[in-house]
Structure formats: structure tokens, C-alpha cells
Amino acid sequence: QVQLVESGGGLVQAGGSLRLSCAASGGTFSLYAMGWFRQAPGKEREYIAGIGVSGTNPYYADSVKGRFTISRDNAKNTVYLHMNNLRPEDTAVYYCAADTDGAVFDTWGQGTQVTVSS
After folding, report:
1. pLDDT tens across 51-76, in order?
2. Most CB atoms closer than 10 Å: which of 19, 46, 49, 79?
3. pLDDT, tens digit, for every residue of 21-42?
4. Strands ordered across the beta sheet of 78-83
5. Separation in Å, CA 37 to CA 19, 56, 66, 75
């Protein structure tokens, strides 16, 4: 069974940067598309970035395009989210997810809090 563990969240000032990591274990990471989601208080979970098994043509939501970069290191079974020029509205719990069945994101990490102060 695949397990995902996020890390790298924290408190940062507006305009700052963070790098989130999501380490996978118990499965074949290189076969899974991976995604990052976030959920702010009182809001629905938002799909913000995704990367396929080849690492090409990543997806970004308009809200993060040009500021966030998703990448993966299959040798380390890890997916990253590099976040630059952070804004207070980026404050949320960030989750990584794996698509292990080729259909939907079906495996989730526990989340990591990102707080951006103004």
C-alpha cells in the first residue's frame, strides 16, 4: 500500500519561497502521476499542480501558474512543489496525492500547513 508523507511547510512572509516535499513508500512511485492540492479554511480543496510519470507537460492552476513548479525525482520516490513569490492567499494545508490506478488521485498524504504572512 502506497503511503505519502509531506514535509517543508511553515510560516513565511509574503514574497518568500518554500519547497514542499512528498515522499512515497510502499509502491512503484515511477508509475504514478502525482499532484499537489491545497485547502484553505472554509474553502474546497483545490488542485494546483500535477505531473505525469514522464515529468513532462505539468499542470498548473491559474492561481499558481508562474510562481509554483512541480517536479519529481523517481530515484528518491519524491515529488516537490517549489513555491515562489508567496502570497497571503496561498495560506492553506497542502496535500500531495498519487494516481495509482491510472484514473483518479486515490492516495493522499496527511498534509502540511503553509502560512504566508503579509
Report:
1. 999 988 899 999 999 999 999 999 99
2. 79
3. 999 999 999 999 999 999 999 9
4. 3-7, 18-25, 78-83, 68-73
5. 14, 19, 17, 23
Residue type, 61: A
Mention every residue, 6+ apart, whose C-beta is less than 8 A from residue 25: 2, 3, 5, 77
Q: Residue 88 — φ and ψ, nearest 5°?
A: -55, -35
End-to-end CA distance of the chain: 40
Task: Assess contact for 88 and 14: CB atoms under 8 A.
Answer: yes
The CA-based angle 8-14-15, given to 5 degrees, is 85
**Region of residue 112 (left: phi > 0; alpha: psi -120 to 50; beta: else):** beta
Distance CA 115, CA 91 (A): 5
Please tell me the total number of residues recorded for the chain in this structure.
118
